[in-house]
Amino acid sequence: xxxxxxxxxxxxxxxxxxxxxxxxxxxxxxxxxxxxxxxxxxxxxxxxxxxxxxxxxxxxxxxxxxxxxxxxxxxxxxxxxxxxxxxxxxxxxxxxxxxxxxxxxxxxxxxxxxxxxxxxxxxxxxxxxxxxxxxxxxxxxxxxxxxxxxxxxxxxxxxxxxxxxxxxxxxxxxxxxxxxxxxxxxxxxxxxxxxxxxxxxxxxxxxxxxxxxxxxxxxxxxxxxxxxxxxxxxxxxxxxxxxxxxxxxxxxxxxxxxxxxxxx
Length: 264
What we know:
Layout: E1 2-4, E2 8-13, E3 16-21, H1 32-46, E4 52-56, E5 61-63, H2 68-75, H3 78-97, E6 101-106, E7 109-111, H4 113-120, E8 123-127, E9 131-133, H5 145-155, H6 157-166, E10 170-171, H7 172-178, E11 183-185, H8 188-203, H9 207-220, H10 228-238, H11 242-253
Parallel strand pairs: 3-4, 4-6, 5-7, 6-8, 7-9, 8-11
Antiparallel strand pairs: 1-2, 2-3, 9-10
Helix pairs in contact: 1-3, 3-4, 5-6, 9-10
């Protein structure tokens, strides 16, 4: 299945949905129509029984941020600019809150809205040549509260201040040491190996449990949509779920569990 042919494409393999940004001539810079396509892909994924979403770019670019060609048009129409901002923030929030476990697979430029997408994912893998930056201050703009919160949760307040106030470019080893990425890979081949290993590891766990864990973490992370009651319910309900019954039985029988809906 495809969402926006040749730019934003989706493909399902077992319980994994791959969402790929493929605009190499623009280093995967995104215009409004591309953000809308990503939002549509997320809506489709949220309604599915898939367990994992993998978001990727092209060799050398995960996403370079906003499409400069469109930026000039948006600047001429304040309402269009406001609508685009709302679309970008809504899409990133959907990615953050989606029930599935999400993985950003990064090779190359990951800047602005691209880093916003990556930060909205649960896990981030990146090659050594990847570079990260958030540059609204260089344009006289301000990063949104939701975007800033994701950055603070990833790297801490002091490093978030450094990135936001200076717009500095962060290399991959530094990003790894800061916690901006989950795993640093030497090159594209190592990235593919790491992705496969991560999917295998996730495949040994319960998709329902991972979704509930995300609810608990969302509450701890300050997501206003998830209160303490919802986090408590996620914890308590798991004890009555089919996946716990299967997981406990498998543990006692010393076998691999086969969770409801299949493993990843």
